[in-house]
Write a structure and sequence with these properties.
Blueprint (H helix, E strand, L loop, with lengths): L3 E3 L6 H6 L9 H20 L1 E6 L4 H12 L3 E4 L11 E6 H9 L5 E4 L5 E4 L27 E2 L6 E2 L6 E6 H7 L4 H6 L4 E7 L2 E6 L12 E4 L2 E2 L8 E2 L6 E8 L3 H4 L6 E7 L8 E11 L4 E14 L3 E12 L4 E2 L10 E12 L5 E14 L5 E2 L4 E2 L3 E17 L3 E21 L2 E20 L5 E20 L5 E19 L5 E19 L4 E19 L5 E12 L2 E2 L2 H9 L7 E2 L2 E14 L4 E13 L2 E5 L5 E5 L2 E16 L2 E14 L20 E14 L2 E12 L9 E2 L4 E12 L3 E8 L11 E2 L4 E2 L5 E9 L1
Parallel strand pairs: 3-6, 12-16, 20-24
Antiparallel strand pairs: 1-3, 2-4, 5-6, 7-8, 9-15, 10-11, 11-14, 12-13, 15-16, 17-18, 17-48, 18-19, 19-21, 21-22, 22-25, 23-47, 25-26, 26-27, 27-28, 28-29, 29-30, 30-31, 31-32, 32-35, 33-34, 35-36, 36-39, 37-38, 39-40, 40-41, 41-42, 42-44, 43-46, 44-45, 45-48
Helix pairs in contact: 3-4
Length: 789
C-alpha cells in the first residue's frame, strides 16, 4: 500500500477538506457542540463489537483484514510495509480495542472520523486506554504486556524490543495506583529510588548514582525539557495527574540524552491533545494523616478539539493541600509542614499538513511550604527549620515532519526554576537563600522510521544554562554567585541488523562541549571559573532475539557531567580553618557494562526482565565539612558499583495481575577522602543496598454498569547509610498501600485509599549529627471522586 492508501468508498482527506468553509470563526460553544456530535457518531462505530481472527502479518494486510471483519473503512497515511509484523488479534472485541492491539508497536496512531472512517497515521495519537461503553462497564481485556510503547531510542518501539533496561508506567497505571507525583513512580522501578524531601524538591538515585551537588547526575526530562547543567541535581516535583507515561531508563544514556544521564534518565511525558474528541475530567479528594493534619485536592482536565483532525488543546490544572505532621518542639505548634501545591498545564497540537505536526506546551508549578519540608527527628519534631517556596515554569515547541522513510524533529525548550529558603539552618542561626536557574535548549534530530536493516538517528544539541545564588547565614558576610554553562553536542546512533536477523548491533557516539564561566563573591573576596569541558560519550550494544517477544542484550556505555565553581564563603572559611579546598571541582564520568534479558512467556501472561551491571564512576564530587553549617566541595577518587535487578509481571487471568521487582546495588567509594567521614568502602550517598516491591490488582464486575477494582502493594528499601556530610545511617523502610475503587459506565468513579499503612516513621535517608532525617508521611487515609465526560 502506498503512502496514502484508501479503502474503497473512503474519501481522501485532502479532497474532503477542499470543500470545507472557514471554521475558525465559530464561537467556542458551537464548536464544542459540533465536537460532541462528531464524537457520538465516531464512538458508536468504535465501541461496536465484532468477531476478529487476525494472524501476525504485515500492517497493510492486517488493516485490510480488520476492515473486512469490522466493516469499517480506513485511510492510511504513511508506509505500512516497513513496520514490524502485527500481533495476533482474536476474539469478540470492541472495534477500537481490536485496532489498538493491531497497531501496538507499529508507531501508528488512529482516529475515528465523524463519518465512521478510520484514519491511520504516525501523526495521530497512539492510544492505550480501553474505552467504556455507554451501557455497561467493559470487561477487563488481556493486557499486552509486551506492547507498552516507549521512545527511549528516539523512536516509537515496544518496551520488550528495546535492548535497554527500561520501565514505562503509562497514565492508566499511574492513575490506577493513585500515584501523586513522579517521585513515587520512580520508586516502583527496579534499581531506582527517590527521596521526596518536600517543598518541591526530589532527589533521585538510579543504579547507585546519587549526588547532592553538581549538575543532574541522573537525567530528568519534562517532555522535551532537560533539567541539567545547572550546578545542582534539582529534580522538580512533577504531579502525576493526566500524564501519558513515565519512562525510567537505567544505565548511562549519554549518547542520545547527553550530559548528566550517568545513572539513567527519567522522562515524564504529558498527554498530547486528542484531535477528534471533546473530553472533561474532574477529580476531588480529601485525606488525613495519622497524628497530623488533613489535606484536599482539586484537579481538572479539558481536551478541546478546535479544528477537526487539525488542531486541539489540552488544559490541566491542579490545586492540592498536602497534610502536615511535623511539630515545632519550641512553641508546641502542630503540623507545621503543611504544603500547598498548584500546577497549570497547557498543550496544543496542530497538524498543518498530513505529514507535519507542531506541539507546543507550557507547564507552571508553585509550592509553598512555610513550615519546612519532610525532615524531623525520631519524635516527628523540629527545633529549627526554614521554609521553602519553589516555582518553576517550562515551555517547549516541537516540530516534526514525517517523511516516507524518516522523520525530522526540531525542539526548543526553556525552563526557569526559583527557590527561596528562609528561617533557621541551626538553632539561633538565621538562613536566607535565593536560587534562580534558567535553561534554554535547541535540538535537531533526523531519524529513520519503520522496520529496516539499518536504523539511525543523528542530531545536534545546544544548551545555555545559568544559575544565580544569593545567601546569608548567621553572622557570616552575605555571598552571591553566578555560573553560566554554554554547551553543545553532535550525536549519532545506528542500529544494524546482522545477516542473521536475530542479531543486531547498536553503535552510538556523542561529542559534548561545555564552556563554563562563574564567579562567587562576598564584599571583599571572589573565586572565578572560566574553563571548557568536553567529552566523547560512546555506546556499544549487542542484542539477540532468539524468539518472538524475547530480547537478550549486552552493552557498554559512558556518561559525563561538567564541573563547577567552589562557593566563595566555603573557600574563605576553609582557609581560616586551615582546610585546603580547590577553587573548582572537575568533571566526573562513568562507564557501565550491562547484561540483560526480557521475555514474554506463558501465552503472553508472564513478563520477566532482568539485568546485571558494573560501573566505574570516577572523580565523584563530595562535600567536606567546614563548619556546622558550611561545607566545601572536592573530587574524590570515585566509586565502584555493581548490581542486579529483576522485574516480574504475571497476569494469570484477565481480571487479576501481580508485579514484583527487586534490586541489589553495591555502590561504594574507592578511596578515603581527607577531612570527611568517607573511607574506602563507604556506601555512596543516599543509595540503598537492597530494594524490593510487590503489588497486585483485582477487577470484578459487581453489577450492570459497575466494576470494582482493588489494588495493593508494599515497598521496602534498606537503610541509606551515608549522610550529606556527617551523621548516622537511616533506617530500613517498609511501607504498604491499598486502594479500593468503584468505576461506573455513567462516567464517575469513587476510590478510598490508605498510604503508608505500616505507619513507617523511620529515617528515609541518613540522619544529620542532630538526628534530623527525611520522613514518610504517616499513615494516610483518603477518598477521591472522579467524573469523566
Amino acid at each position: 500500500m502506498s503512502a496514502a492508501a484508501v479503502r474503497p468508498g473512503a474519501t481522501p482527506p485532502r479532497a474532503e477538506r477542499r470543500g470545507r468553509g472557514s471554521c475558525w470563526l465559530r464561537v467556542p460553544l458551537l464548536l464544542g457542540l459540533a465536537c460532541c456530535i462528531a464524537l457520538s457518531n465516531a464512538q458508536d462505530r468504535a465501541t461496536r463489537a465484532s468477531s476478529f481472527s487476525i494472524a501476525p502479518q504485515s500492517l497493510e494486510d492486517a488493516l485490510i483484514a480488520f476492515s473486512e471483519q469490522s466493516g469499517i473503512q480506513f485511510v492510511a497515511i504513511g508506509d505500512l510495509k516497513t513496520t514490524a509484523r502485527t500481533p495476533t488479534v482474536r476474539g469478540v472485541l470492541d472495534n477500537e480495542e481490536a485496532l489498538r492491539r493491531l497497531l501496538a508497536g507499529s508507531g501508528f496512531g488512529y482516529t475515528f472520523r465523524a463519518n465512521g472512517v478510520v484514519t491511520v497515521s504516525r501523526d495521530l495519537p497512539i492510544r492505550r486506554a480501553t474505552p467504556i461503553t455507554p451501557t455497561t462497564v467493559a470487561a477487563p481485556v488481556p493486557t499486552d504486556l509486551a506492547g507498552v510503547q516507549v521512545t527511549a531510542r528516539r523512536r516509537t518501539e515496544r518496551s520488550i524490543d528495546v535492548p535497554l533496561a527500561i520501565t514505562a508506567l503509562d497514565g492508566q497505571q499511574l492513575d490506577g495506583m493513585g500515584i501523586a507525583n513522579a517521585a513515587l513512580a520512580i520508586d516502583s522501578v527496579p534499581g531506582a529510588s527517590s527521596v521526596d524531601i518536600g517543598g518541591g524538591f526530589t532527589q533521585v538515585q538510579i543504579r547507585g548514582v546519587s549526588s547532592s551537588l553538581g549538575g543532574n547526575d541522573n537525567g530528568y526530562y519534562l517532555d522535551e525539557i532537560p533539567f541539567t547543567g545547572v550546578t545542582v541535581p534539582w529534580h522538580p516535583d512533577a504531579r502525576a495527574f493526566d500524564l501519558d507515561r513515565v519512562e525510567v531508563l537505567r544505565g548511562p544514556q549519554g549518547t542520545l540524552f547527553g550530559e548528566g544521564s550517568m545513572g539513567g534518565t527519567v522522562r515524564i511525558l504529558t498527554r498530547k491533545p486528542e484531535l477528534d474528541r471533546f473530553a472533561l475530567l474532574a477529580q476531588g479528594g480529601w485525606s488525613t494523616a495519622s497524628g497530623g493534619g488533613s489535606g484536599w485536592s482539586a484537579k481538572l482536565m479539558a481536551n478541546l478539539p478546535v479544528l477537526e483532525d487539525r488542531l486541539a488543546v489540552r488544559v490541566v490544572a491542579t490545586d492540592e493541600l498536602l497534610p502536615g505532621w511535623v511539630d515545632d518542639a519550641t512553641d508546641g505548634r502542630r503540623d507545621i509542614n503543611t504544603q500547598h501545591v498548584r500546577s497549570r498545564r497547557l498543550r496544543a497540537s496542530f497538524l498543518p499538513t498530513e505529514r507535519w505536526r507542531l506541539d507546543a506546551a507550557h507547564w507552571s508549578y508553585h509550592s509553598s511550604a512555610p513550615g519546612g519540608g519532610y525532615a524531623a527527628d525520631d519524635a516527628m519534631q523540629v527545633t529549627y527549620y526554614y521554609g521553602r517556596d519553589a516555582d518553576w515554569t517550562t515551555s517547549n515547541l516541537v516540530s516534526t515532519y514525517e517523511g516516507d522513510a524518516s522523520s525530522l524533529t526540531y525542539t526548543y525548550a526553556e525552563a526557569d526554576l526559583a527557590q527561596r529558603q528562609q528561617g533557621e539552618i541551626l538553632p539561633d542561626t538565621a538562613y536566607d537563600s535565593a536560587i534562580d536557574i534558567g535553561v534554554r535548549t535547541h535540538e535537531l534530530r533526523w531519524n529513520s522510521t519503520g522496520h529496516r536493516t539499518v536504523a539511525w538517528t543523528v542530531g545536534a544539541y545546544r544548551r545555555q544554562a545559568r544559575r544565580l545564588d544569593a545567601s546569608a547565614i548567621g553572622e557570616v558576610a552575605p555571598s552571591r554567585a553566578r555560573q553560566e554553562n554554554d554547551g553543545g553536542a553532535l550525536f549519532g546512533d545506528v542500529i544494524v541488523q546482522l545477516p542473521n536477523s536475530a542479531w543486531s548491533v547498536n553503535l552510538g557516539l556523542r561529542y559534548f562541549e561545555d564552556q563554563v564561566q562563574g564567579v562567587s563573591l562576598t564584599s571583599d573576596a571572589r573565586t572565578t571559573l572560566d574553563e571548557q569541558f568536553h567529552s566523547w560519550n560512546p555506546r556499544l550494544g549487542l542484542s539477540w532475539t532468539p524468539a518472538d517477544d524475547t530480547t537478550v542484550y549486552a552493552s557498554l556505555a559512558k556518561g559525563f557531567r561538567s564541573g563547577q565553581l567552589q562557593p566563595i564563603t566555603s573557600f574563605l572559611l576553609a582557609q581560616a580553618a586551615g582546610i585546603e579546598l580547590p577553587t573548582r571541582i572537575t568533571a566526573d564520568r562513568i562507564v557501565t557494562a550491562e547484561l540483560g534479558a526480557k521475555a514474554l512467556t506463558r501465552d503472553g501472561r508472564v513478563l520477566v526482565e532482568a539485568a546485571v551491571f558494573q560501573s566505574r564512576w570516577r572523580d565523584v564530587p563530595v562535600r567536606v565539612p567546614v563548619t556546622d553549617v558550611f561545607n566545601g566541595l572536592v573530587n574524590s577518587d570515585g566509586a565502584e558499583i555493581r548490581g542486579a535487578e529483576i522485574g516480574l509481571t504475571w497476569k494469570p487471568r484477565d481480571d487479576l495481575s501481580f508485579q514484583l521487582e527487586s534490586a541489589w546495588v553495591d555502590a561504594a567509594y574507592t578511596a578515603d577522602v581527607a577531612g570527611t567521614p568517607i573511607t574506602r568502602g563507604s556506601p555512596v550517598y543516599n543509595t540503598p543496598r537492597l530494594t524490593w516491591g510487590a503489588a497486585g490488582e483485582y477487577q470484578r464486575t459487581i453489577a450492570l454498569g459497575m466494576r470494582g477494582v482493588a489494588r495493593a502493594g508494599v515497598r521496602y528499601h534498606s537503610a541509606r547509610q551515608a549522610s550529606l556530610t556527617q551523621g548516622s545511617p537511616g533506617d530500613d523502610i517498609l511501607s504498604a498501600h491499598v486502594r479500593l475503587g468503584l468505576e461506573t459506565s455513567a462516567g464517575w468513579s469513587l476510590a478510598i485509599y490508605g498510604d503508608n499503612l505500616t505507619n513507617e516513621q523511620g529515617a528515609d535517608d541518613a540522619r544529620t549529627t542532630r538526628g534530623i532525617a527525611t520522613r514518610l508521611r504517616p499513615r494516610t487515609l483518603g477518598v477521591e471522586l472522579q467524573v469523566r465526560y
